[in-house]
Amino acid sequence: MGQRPLRDSSRRLRPHYRNGAQVRESAGTDDDKKARNLLRKKLGAVANGIVQDSRSLRYEDIRDAYMDDYVTNGKKSLRRDRQGVAYLESVRRLDDFFAGYRAVEIDADLMRRYQREQQNSELSNASINRAVSSLRKMFTLAQRDGRIRNLPFFPMLPESRPRQGTLPHDKYAALLAALRDCNAYSQKS
Questions:
Q1: Residue ranges for the chain with pLDDT beneath 70
Q2: Cα within 13 Å of Cα(98), Cβ side
Q3: pTM higher than the cut 0.70
Q4: Which residues make Cβ contacts (< 8 Å) with residue 154, sequence separation at least 6?
Q5: Which candidate, 150, 118, 153, places its Cα nearest to that of 135?
Q6: How many angstroms separate the CA atoms of 139 and 189, rounded?
Q7: Domain residue ranges of the chain, discontinuous segments joined by +
Q8: pLDDT tens digits, residue range 91-117?
Q9: pLDDT digit string, tens, across residues 144-161
Q10: N or C, where is the chain less crowded by C-beta within 10 Å?
Q11: Which H or E element spans position 27?
């Protein structure tokens, strides 16, 4: 309890310990009483395990948790390759771009760079948005698991409107009959 505030450019620094390492953060005030209250709150948060260091959390970690969630819940969009390894096509595209990044480095600017790169490879805005939605879900799962505190903004691209109209049943039946006739004619030749 005998901790003294340290002077640093007219702001009070309050040392506390997180995961065995001393952390010194500015209290943002010159008032000793406010600095002590802030230190008490920080120590309480550390003691309750509320504060978690997410600087070492990598994209691959949140991607693995996302894929585990898909496998556990038996999502139908999950695909398997010849070796039986589960994958999602949108996540493969994310892997190509975000592999090696720390989660805290992934922000809106980096996502916009990803979107530009995908547009340059002539991918549709809807496909790009599905991948960004997967990335958002990865971050949401990490936040629910207590592995990350703040979520970045996820920019979305405008998508084209869905197609309008369907064939009425009578026109569909006529089209199907015409295709059958065409197919029968091509088999005779």
A1: 1-23, 25, 45-54, 184-189
A2: 32
A3: no
A4: 108, 111, 132, 133, 135, 136
A5: 153
A6: 59
A7: 6-47, 59-144
A8: 999 999 999 999 999 999 999 999 999
A9: 998 888 899 999 999 988
A10: N
A11: none
